[in-house]
C-alpha cells in the first residue's frame, strides 16, 4: 500500500512553467479533496548578491518578502477558480536543496513542480531543479512540462 498524501504542494517561481504546475496541482487538490500549499524559494544566489552589494539585513528581508508576494500572487492567479491555497511557504537557499529539506520534514505531501526546459547541454552540466528534486525526493513528485 502506498503512502497517504495529506496535501498537495506546488513549487512556484512566477514563471509560465510554474503557473502550469500550479494549475495542475490545484486540479489535483480539487479532485482529491486535499489542501493546496504554495511553496517558493528565494534563491541563495540572489540573496548573496544583495549581501555583497551592501544591502542592510532589514532591506534583504523586505526584498525576500516582496519576492514571495510576487510569486504567490502569480500562483494564486493561476489557481483562481480551481482551488484556494491553504498555506504559503517561503524558504531561502538553493532551490533544489531547500525543497528537498522541506519534503524531508513533510513526508506526507505530493509535490508538483514545473520544468523550465533548459537546453540539453545546460541540463547535463548544471542539472535542473526538477531533476535534482525527482532524483532525491522520497515523496510522490509530479513534473509538469508546460
UniProtKB/TrEMBL annotation:
Signal peptide: none annotated. SUPFAM superfamilies: Adenine nucleotide alpha hydrolases-like. It comes from the Bacteria. Residues 7-144 form the UspA domain. InterPro entries: Rossmann-like_a/b/a_fold (IPR014729), Universal_stress_UspA (IPR006015), UspA (IPR006016). Belongs to the universal stress protein A family. This is Universal stress protein. It comes from Marinobacter aromaticivorans. The lineage of its organism: Bacteria, Pseudomonadati, Pseudomonadota, Gammaproteobacteria, Pseudomonadales.
Amino acid at each position: 500500500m502506498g503512502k497517504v498524501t495529506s496535501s498537495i504542494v506546488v513549487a512556484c517561481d512566477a514563471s509560465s512553467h510554474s503557473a502550469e504546475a500550479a494549475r495542475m496541482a490545484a486540479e489535483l487538490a480539487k479532485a482529491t479533496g486535499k489542501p493546496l500549499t504554495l511553496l517558493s524559494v528565494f534563491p541563495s544566489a540572489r540573496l548573496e548578491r544583495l549581501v555583497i552589494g551592501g544591502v542592510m539585513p532589514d532591506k534583504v528581508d523586505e526584498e525576500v518578502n516582496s519576492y514571495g508576494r510576487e510569486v504567490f500572487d502569480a500562483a494564486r492567479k493561476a489557481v483562481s477558480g480551481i482551488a484556494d491555497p491553504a498555506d504559503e511557504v517561503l524558504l531561502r537557499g538553493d532551490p533544489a536543496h531547500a525543497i528537498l529539506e522541506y519534503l524531508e520534514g513533510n513526508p506526507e505531501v505530493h509535490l508538483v513542480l514545473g520544468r523550465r526546459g533548459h537546453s540539453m547541454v545546460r541540463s547535463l552540466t548544471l542539472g535542473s531543479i526538477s531533476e535534482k528534486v525527482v532524483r532525491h525526493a522520497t515523496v510522490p513528485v509530479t513534473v509538469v512540462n508546460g
